[in-house]
Amino acid sequence: MSSLTLRAPAKLNLSLRVLGRRDDGFHEIDTLMVKLPELADLIEFNESPNGFTFECDDRSLPTDETNLVVKAVRAYDAVSGISCGFQIKLTKNIPHGAGLGGGSSDAATTLIGLDRLNDNR
After folding, report:
1. Does the pLDDT of residue 3 top 60, yes or no?
2. 58-84 b/e (C-beta count within 10 Å ≥ 16 → b)
3. What predicted TM-score, i.e. pTM, was given to this entire model?
4. What's phi and psi for 51, nearest 5 deg?
5. 47: which of 18, 25, 55, 61 is 20 to 30 A away, CA to CA?
């Protein structure tokens, strides 16, 4: 049974300049950022015979399709053609809404974790 726990570090923007809006609605930016590895969320992956499930210890965060971890899983599934067969548990240490990039770090770390786990199958 495959399992993995990864740290999703916070980040701090030392400078940030919004350059303009792209056609897809996102913005082009010029930024200088640093990781804050001492402040990190934990993401646990455990193989599940029941397919993908997601839980988070912070009850104020959604665990539905609007959560960035769930969005990352759906994007990975769509691109890789591999259905997520893992229970993913997010333990929040980075305060959400604090501008420390917790959500995007969680999503990126989820993609890294799925890639590692699927390479080992």
Report:
1. yes
2. eeebebeeebbbbebbeebeeeeeeeb
3. 0.88
4. 85, -165
5. 61
